[in-house]
Each structure stands twice: as structure tokens, then as C-alpha cells.
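Progress report, Aim 2. The chain analyzed during this reporting quarter is listed below.
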Amino acid sequence: MPPLSTPSRSCAAPRPAPSGQKPLSRARTKKKRKRLGFFKTIGIVFLTAFLLAIAFLAWFFLTPSGTSLRYRLADTIITTQHRVWAKYLVGEKGLQERVAAYAKQFEEMGEERDTHQIEQPAAGADGAGGAEDDQPLTKIETVDGKGYHGYLLTVRDPKKIRLVVPNKRGKGEKVSSMVERTGAIAGVNAGGFADPNWKGNGFQPIGLVISQGKIFYRDIGMDQSTQIVGLDKNGKMIAGRYSVNELMDLGISEAVSFSPRIIVNGKGLIKNHSQGWGIAPRTVMGQKEDGSILFLIIDGRQPGYSIGADLYDAQQIMLEHGAVIAANLDGGSSTVLVTEGGEIVNKPSTKGGRYLPTAFLVFEDPSSVSVPNIWEGLTAKDIDPSKW
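Predicted C-alpha cells for the chain:
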């Protein structure tokens, strides 16, 4: 009698493999599935990364917050030797407009005339006097903020500060060497200099250099104006836009050209971080109503230690410490703070510091310090800033 139903597939005999082909083992099947799973995972990862990248770029270039960050990054790059790279963030035209806008802004920030007055210390054997004689001339404290670490040097008597220059022609000098050579008790970098390809020898200043009331170097006419940072013969800080003749009439004693002035008559001139000219190592000089001078040194370009600060950060620090006037000095890889014996306190982004044309140094007895004019008889055309 024939079967009432067809046997189920599970009861059927296995089909023979085609001639010359072996049946797939369970191990090979598992390996194949694992490989397919791996490639599927990789595909998902790449797709997710691609979508996230698209979302980030849309935010970075099309939203107000993203644009703000993009321009701040561009400003940071502009402060480095790779300025041209900023065009990849804001375009070539955007880069040129950004640099021009800052130049114009800095000029305007130097126009208001400063009217601050300082307390003159009572006359004494060293020009100070009274109970204050027992206080140390200098004090160093640390300053910290979001992404940066730095130091604040306070000099109680502004008349103890001299603008010092290298002692050999044709080459700048490290601030640590200047301090050790002259016997100073502290020093910071000062003005800017011609720096071709960011590898300059540090010998050619930009603008104006004045030490002990004498003009050491100038590449402008006596009636031409420049942004300066310095001190008059009474120890009052002068910063902003002045002609050389105006400075001489004001009794200028120590000065270099640099900008911008960020505090005048007790008020900050930078409104927010977006006007802070990027993140970088900073050197800033300021003065309090009691006459004491503040030098702010902020390290930068060192992830994990200190990235740097913008000028708005620096301005706020100076205001918090009582500055009624303050101005930017050369920063970046020039930023350095040195104490007695040539010991470097901070961590310059260029190890050991750079060769520079000028430095503000502090002396117990500045009258005993002789600063020769190594640029005497030289003009800008006589100097090769790239020749070592």
C-alpha cells in the first residue's frame, strides 16, 4: 500500500554534493558570517562618521556658534608663523579682511588720551621711602584660567625698570642672557622685530626703541606716530599712539613700539572673546594707581599644559589686579619671564626663549646700569634681519 503522505524533508536522505565539491563545514560558515559581520560593522562606522562629519561641517560653517569658533581658530592661526593656513577656515579674502580689521581696530584703540595719575613714593635714599621700603621690589604669582597657565610679575617701583638691548651688533639676545649679564633681578620680553620666515636673528626692531630717555632706534620720522608701550621719567606708564616728538615732550624714558593698548583710563577696550585676536602665548604690561607695574606672562601652544589666552582674557586678568592702563607686548614664542641669574620661570613655546632686540628688566639700582646703543649709526637698510 503506498504511503499516505510524502516523507518530510527532515527524513529525506541528504543530497549528495556536486562532483568534486565538499560540503561546507559549520566552521567555514561561521567564519564567513563573522567576516560579513565585520565588514557590516566597518560600513556602519564609516557611514556614521560621514554623517557626523557632514553635521559638524554644517554647524561649523552655517551656524552663528560654529562661525564664531571658526573665526577664533583662524585668529589663533594668524598669530603663528602659519598665518596663510587661516584661509582654509575663512578663505583668502576673509583672511585679508580679518587682518585689516584687527589693524584698524588696534589703531583706534590707541587714540584715546590716557589721563591716569600714579602715587609718587616719598623721597628716600633710593627714591622709595617709608614703611614700603621693607616690601620686596618684585612679586611673582601664578594665574590660571580656562586652557591657560601663566604668571604675574608685580614691580613695586616703576623707576626700577630699564629697557635693555643686546650688547653685540648683528644679533639679538635672549632675555635670560640679558638678565644674567646685567645683574637684573627680573625681566620680560618687550617689543617686536623684523622676523623673515619666522627665523629672524632678533636684531632689527620695528618702530621705536628708547632707553634712559635716548632714542636708540627708529624707522619713522620724528613727527610720525606709532603705538608705543613704556614709562616716563617719573615712572608713569605711557601706552597708545604718539609721535616721537610728543613722547620726548612727555619725558619718555623707556619705550618700545607695540600694540594694542587694551586698558585706558581704567576701562577695558576689548568687548569679548571674539575680539581677542585668537589664542596664543601673551606678554602684557600694565600699571596700577599706586604706580606698581604688572607684567602678565601666559604660556601657550603646549596642549596638556597651557594652550594660551586671547587679549580679552589678558585684559580681564589685568583689570582684576587693579590695572588702570595696560598694553600688549610681543607674544607668541617671544613670551618669557626671567628671574635673577637668568632663570626662566615660565615655559616658552620656543625652548629657552628667542633672540630678541629688547627687554624690560628690573634692577635694585638702575642708575648703575649702562645700556649701550648698538644701533648707533645704523638704519633699517643697514641691517639684514635674517643673517646670523
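The chain has two domains: 63-104, 135-382. Residues 26-62 form the longest helix (37 residues). These observations will guide the mutagenesis work planned for the next reporting period.
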